[in-house]
Amino acid sequence: MPLIRRRFLLAFVVLLGTAGTVAWAQPRPVLSITMPARELVTKVGPAVAASHMLAGSKLQELLSSGFPARLHFVVELWSVGGWVNNLERVTEWDVVVRRIALEDVYEVTQIAGDHIYSLGKFALLTDAEAAVGRPVRASIVASSGRKRFYYQATLAVETLALSDLDEVERWLRGEFRPAVQGRRNPGTALSRGIKTLASRMLGGERREYEQRTAVFGTTDDSR
User: Fold this and answer.
1) Is the separation of the CB atoms in 71 and 50 below 8 Å?
2) Confidence (pTM)
3) pLDDT single digits (tens) 36-59
4) pLDDT: which is higher, 89 or 173
5) CB of 46 within 8 A of CB of 142?
6) Residues 6 or more apart whose Cβ sits within 8 Å of residue 168
7) Domain limits of the chain?
8) Among 173, 167, 170, which Cα is nearest to 198's?
9) Which of 152, 27, 31, 28 is closest to 95 using CA atoms?
């Protein structure tokens, strides 16, 4: 085989190997929603998981530079009608990922209603991403009866602007918690703070995902 051809084939093999490595190193973000067992559909909601949501060099660079990322989850329960489907119930929660420079760690925090939960601090972004990906059981369920239902989950992933960093710090330290506990106007501080922070994004770094379950029925226990 001529030398030039051998070199070309060798370069081609190396290129294929490199492409495979890149594809393996950058898994595709996946939003999933999993139904409970059939006998539990009127007792517990679906499980929602968001895998590999911090993938991508741009988002990772922003996170490592100190810009927090917010993941906003919404799960809706719809009933199937003859002409139009009806929204029956909805629940939502947020996950915030930020880098704490002084500790050289990534902190993951979940906010659901007026509760703030720490999901941990991690030295590696991959470990923080794994914490983000833990399944969450949605707090809505289908009622018994003759209706048919389905769940729909949506997720928005966005980075927050530099001007929001001080507000994020105060928010996660709990300075807004007196408001949501009733000592100030309830139902405004935390929800308004989340929406205000999310409305000012950096560089349009926003991703949206959507998944829904198959249509399912429930049994009427009274019959």
Assistant:
1) yes
2) 0.72
3) 999 999 999 999 999 999 888 788
4) 89
5) no
6) 68, 96, 98, 160, 197
7) 28-217
8) 167
9) 31
